[in-house]
Amino acid sequence: MEKSFDLSEKEVSLPPDLESGISSSPGRNSDSNSPYSSPSSVIHHLPSDAGEISPVGSQEQQFLQPRKRHQRNASLSISPTAAGFAEAEAEAGASSLLRVIFWILYATLPLGILGYFLASYAVDYRHSNHSGSGYYPDLPSGYASKTGNFDDFGIEFYDLQDYRSTPEGWNRDERVLFCVPLRDASAHLPMFFGHMRNLTYPHNLIDLAFLISDTSDSTIKDLKKHLAEIQSDPDSSFHFGRINIYEKDFGQIIGQSFSDRHGFQAQGPRRKLMAIARNWLLSTALRPDHAWVYWRDADVETIPATIIEDLMHHDRDVIVPNIWRPLPDWLGYEQPYDLNSWQESEGGIELADRLDEDAVIVEGYVEYATWRPHLAYLRDANGDPEVEMELDGIGGVSILSKANVFKSGSNFPAFSFQKHAETEGFGKLCKRMGYSVIGLPHYTIWHIYEPSSDDLRHMEWMAQEEKRRLERAKIQKFYDKAWKLAFEEVDEDWKRLKFNVFKNTDLRKTGRKIEVDWSEVDEYLLEMDDEYNSGASTEWYDEEENQDPMSLFEKYDDDFKDKLEKSKKTDNPHEEVFNSFPLNPYVSGKNGKNYQFVKFRKGNGDDIVNSQTNDEERKKESAEMELALSEARMLKEEENAKKIEEENALKAEKEKEAEMARKQKLKEEEEQAKVLKEQEDAKKKFEEAEMAKMKEQAAKRRAEKLERQKEKKRKEDEEMKRLNQIAIDKEMSRREIEKLKDPQEK
């Protein structure tokens, strides 16, 4: 085979295709650290005095064609026919090579596209898949990420300048982190999610974050159920963005009742643990693309659907509404609830200076008189809801804050910061950092009414009083019926009888002076009044007063029916029916049930002639009655003294049992605290072990990555050596050809 060479050039150069393939090969970076960054790195071992050989035909064909054994002895005569034939052959080889490259690309392009999409899906799945022991409900999400750019390595990029807080965040797609701490809140969740459905802020821009701690009811189960309902709604506008549920116990032992939570002694430890819980929730849920953070309690009864927009458009760093609660009518209908939103006063500053450094001031207790102006007490039902008031401390029922407040380092102090903690400490800290803290005195939301222990006791008394009133009305109805059936009005008859008795008698002509001695009656009545008013000696005749009204009703109901039947057979039915029938047991005193209806008895008392004898008999009977009464009184007093002694002994026994129970409870609390401490220590050891394990795994991954880099470097070095060797072989071939050509020219 004959080939023609052009020897006019004197400088060494690689073929253009190889040079371009080395300097800028597809799929590689043009980094200066790459071993293929320049052609000089490939040919730096070549001799410096080498010439250049350039075939007239295709350089690709010449450079890639293997050297034939018979080339050394081939004829080197140059003729036009041979040169044309060589050029045609080179062009045919080049077109054949292009066709092969085209068919290779045609066959591999679909596979490459499919592989690209599979790789993208694998990266997304790796970053969205949840692992570990955290709680992740199986819920659909309405969140569609418009932030952050992902590359092939799962790296997310954020420009934090894009996530500023503006007064019209709903028009600028600004995301809101909705934080809700929960503890034994199962009963409040239906009401809470009713409010959530009504929110007018775009739901897909709201990310929900729940922290469930120290709960003993079905809060987690019910929360997942309500979230599944709202996220599975056919109307996608109800779907919220990201939803995260975190569960962590903090050892809170204070009860959830109103009196337990608002007791003065419980405030300091309780507020510090609440601050820790809020900080855990915030630090785990806050993301770079959040522009606002909204805190809400679950037990809010009435709240506007536009609460987020209403607070956001004020464009304040931290802002809170006014919090009140409804009350029953017997407590005044309504009352300020959240007293933790206030302005600082001189009295508060002086009190803080006098307290220990670890003390925590809490509002609304007589132990800490601060004389601060409270946001709650400045409410006017008809006032302008846009009016603002600067605050130093805030409550935690409803807080809207710009996210950069927390991103800049502010949080809820779990210690005494300027003698305050949790939300009040947060307000103080924000003021110290130069942020605005604002309250709206006339924009009100309503917390639920939770009865205190005193309220519960009063409600129990009211229920008993209502029951007693109904029983009294029932018995009164019975007595009215008895009076109507068994008694007759005799006023008119007595007037006629009196007229008939005295119509023929002129008492003035009898010559006798008629006088009535009422002294004994007056003395008796006065004595009875004194005994009744003293309250000490009336129990002897009041035995039936302490009986159950319904039992008296049943007892005398049967007697009344029987005697009413017998009275129909007598001449005077009124003498038999009410022989020993009591009056209304609810009417006490002389005109009440201490007296009885006594039947009319005929005797010497009606004899006018022997009236003096009757007076002596009455005095004797009165003396006997007084003696009997005194004996009964003494007996009753002895019984009362004995009863009081027994009650005192029983009371002492109960106090002793209560003291023993208190000691037992203290012992149990100490044991529980010890168990909690052991559990906390075990958790800490476990977390330390997990952290060490993670560090070990990270070190192992770094070592593996370093080993892969070394292996990759080694392969690149081998590839570089191979290319250098190819270049050297080609150069040697060229020199051999020149050596063969030089004798022929000579």
CATH names the topology of the domain at 163-450 as Spore Coat Polysaccharide Biosynthesis Protein SpsA, Chain A
Percent of residues in helical segments?
Answer: 40-55%
Mean pLDDT: 74
In percent terms, what proportion of residues is strand? 5-15%
CATH superfamily of the domain at 163-450: Spore Coat Polysaccharide Biosynthesis Protein SpsA, Chain A
Sheet of most strands: 10 strands, mixed
* Straight-line distance between termini: 21 Å
Structural class: alpha/beta
Total beta strands: 14
Shape annotation: elongated
CATH architecture of the domain at 163-450: Alpha-Beta Complex
Q: What is the alpha-carbon Rg in Å?
A: 52 Å
- Parts with pLDDT < 50 across at least 5 consecutive residues: 1-83, 123-140, 255-264, 536-545, 571-611
Q: Tell me the name of the CATH class of the domain at 163-450.
A: Alpha Beta
Count of alpha/pi helices = 18
Biased composition (Basic and acidic residues): 1-12
Pfam families: Anp1
Region (Disordered): 1-75, 604-623, 638-746
GO molecular function: alpha-1,6-mannosyltransferase activity
